[in-house]
Amino acid sequence: MTYAETRRPDLRIAAGIHRALGDAATVINVGAGTGSYEPPQTVLAVEPSSVMIAQRPAGSAPALEASAESIPLADDSADAVMALLTVHHWSDPEAGVEELRRIARRRIVVLTFDHEVSRRFWLLEEYLPEAAAVDDVRAVAVDRLVALLGGARVETVPVPHDCTDGFLAAFWRRPEAYLDPQVRAGISLLARTRDEVLRPGLARLSGDLSSGRWQRRHADLLDREELDVGYRLLVADL
Q1: Which residues are CB-neighbours of 210 under 8 A, at least 6 positions away?
Q2: What CA dihedral angle connects 178, 18, 135 and 151, to 10 degrees?
Q3: pLDDT in the model for residue 209
Q4: What's the confidence (pLDDT) of residue 123?
Q5: Which residue, 8, 13, 48, 230, is CA-closest to 139?
Q6: By the 8 A CB rule, do 110 and 85 touch?
Q7: DSSP class of residue 70?
Q8: ∠ CA 171-194-128, rounded to 5°
Q9: What parts of the chain have a pLDDT lower than 50?
Q10: Contact predicate 63/79, CB 8 Å
């Protein structure tokens, strides 16, 4: 199973991203990965990983192998630039955002997460606090991103219970999914955390699911249609 198969765009989340892009006629996707959520008007993807680029679907926009911190494009290269669930991977977020501002003419759309909210997600808080500690280091505060962007509108992105995009908190109502190594391989935080670190917490989760303890503890989630687990959409007009 490839990353592209476990990380299939969720149409509801896509609709919000595309609304945020507005009437932009040209879009550049920075930190594009396999191309999730790219609208038809995408003219270029920027992605540092050749492995990710190789998994982009046929017919996708052309991809440039480059990092967000140094994009070999002219100023004002597109109406809008988007960067989705990528900022926490950048070695220098300040330089990366400056590049977004440089190549965008009118608008920047960033999908990120509020670490103060996401670290309280039950998987991290109750079972994998060691993994949460990794995000303590790499997460970029929403307020910092807003300041770097020169101001931005911040929108909450609730996650539907049947989300098709297998990012970290997508399975908040489907806890058994986290026991699947193929699912975990598509979640960067878990994929980058050593198995021996994850194993004890996952064993506790497995036991709690078998005994019904998880279901009793989180009964309030079982009838929820969507949940705020910290994902935020930042929309900056230049």
Answers
A1: none
A2: -160
A3: 98
A4: 98
A5: 230
A6: no
A7: S
A8: 45
A9: 1
A10: no
Q: For the purposes of burial, counting CB atoms within 10 Å of the CB of 207, is it exposed (0-12), middle (13-18) or buried (19 or more)? A: exposed
Nearest to 199 by CA among 184, 210, 209: 184
Contact (Cβ atoms closer than 8 angstroms) between residue 101 and residue 150: yes
Q: Give the list of residues 6+ apart from residue 204 with CB closer than 8 angstroms, or none.
A: 127
The DSSP symbol for 25 reads: S
Block residue for tokens 């975990």: 184
pLDDT of residue 82: 98
Place of tokens 């192998």: 65
Average pLDDT, the chain: 95
Q: What is the structure's pLDDT at 145?
A: 98
Confidence at residue 3, expressed as pLDDT on a 0 to 100 scale: 65
How many C-beta atoms lie closer than 10 Å to residue 125's C-beta?
12
Please, which residues have CB within 8 angstroms of residue 30's CB and are 6 or more apart in sequence?
Answer: 46, 68, 71, 81, 82, 83, 86, 96, 99, 100
Check: pTM over 0.85? Answer yes or no: yes
In this structure, the strands spanning 231-237 and 104-113 are antiparallel
Task: Name the amino acid, one letter, at 27.
Answer: V
DSSP string, 174-238: -GGGGG-HHHHHTSHHHHTS-HHHHHHHHHHHHHHHHHTHHHHHTGGGTT-SEE--SEEEEEEE-
Read off φ and ψ for residue 108, nearest 5 degrees.
-125, 135
Give pLDDT, residue 127.
Answer: 98
